[in-house]
Amino acid sequence: MNRPLRLATAALTAAAALLLTSCGSDDDTSKDDDKIAGADGGGEKSSSPSEPAASADRPKIELPADLTYEFEWSKTGDKTKDAVLADTEQYLKAVDLAIAEQKPLHKAYRFYSEGDAAAGSQKFVQEYVDYKDRITGTKRYFNARVDVTGGKTAGLVYCEDQRKAHNKSLKTGKTEKASAPSKDDFVLYSSRLHLNDQGVWITETTTSDRGNATCQPQS
């Protein structure tokens, strides 16, 4: 039996103490890709350049047509903060791409994460692979706050609304929806990121607080 999306996410939080969110091709399962970079706690972080690289060889992210996003955070006007938000958007989508393609070690999310965040994402994706599920519907993100230190490290806090996001069985094609809305459909996330030598903001850690009052709809 499939699980509601919020239960799958909660399971990740309990198992990995993080959250954001192999069976793939040889590109994703080479010997160098068998482990998540820095996941053992001693991995070195890439040194950041004095100026971000003009461009990076970013992975192409093409998601199923029935999965959409609403990022309700406007540009701050600060170039660095806006880059943190943009790369976080790509990281979130990359995790869902790994789920859709059923690849726990997908190179796309590992491009945007490392260490604990990447390890947590791997476990999250593996859970969907085990159940032969993927995500459908709309995922909404809002109330983002970015704090940057020294131009090379950042903290990000934001909310997710999962009311319109559901699990879809890859075996039957059926979509499972929660029986009723719940405060647990709303999740508060807190992430730590750093700027790598390609000018990409890399998520290092993400913790979650499901049902947090900060993210609940105003009555």
Question: Can you put this structure into words, describing what you see?
Answer:
- This protein starts with a helix and ends in a 9-residue tail after the last strand.
- Helix 1 packs across helix 4 and helix 2 (79-100) runs parallel beside helix 4.
- Helix content is 26%, strand content 27%.
- The chain is of the alpha+beta class.
- Strands 1, 2, 3, 4, 5, 6 and 7 form a 7-stranded mixed sheet that branches.
- It contains 4 helices and 7 strands.
- The radius of gyration is 17 Å and the shape is globular.
SSE layout and pairings?
Elements: H1 5-16, E1 67-72, H2 79-100, H3 107-111, H4 115-131, E2 133-149, E3 153-161, E4 165-169, E5 175-176, E6 186-195, E7 201-210
Parallel strand pairs: 1-2
Antiparallel strand pairs: 2-3, 2-4, 3-6, 4-5, 6-7
Helix pairs in contact: 1-4, 2-4
Major sheet description? 7 strands, mixed
State Rg: 17 Å
The number of distinct β-strands equals 7
**Regions with little confidence, pLDDT below 50 for 5+ residues:** 10-54
| Helicity, as a percent range | 25-40%
Query: How far from one another are the termini?
Result: 34 Å
Structural class: alpha+beta
Quaternary state of this entry equals single chain
Shape: globular
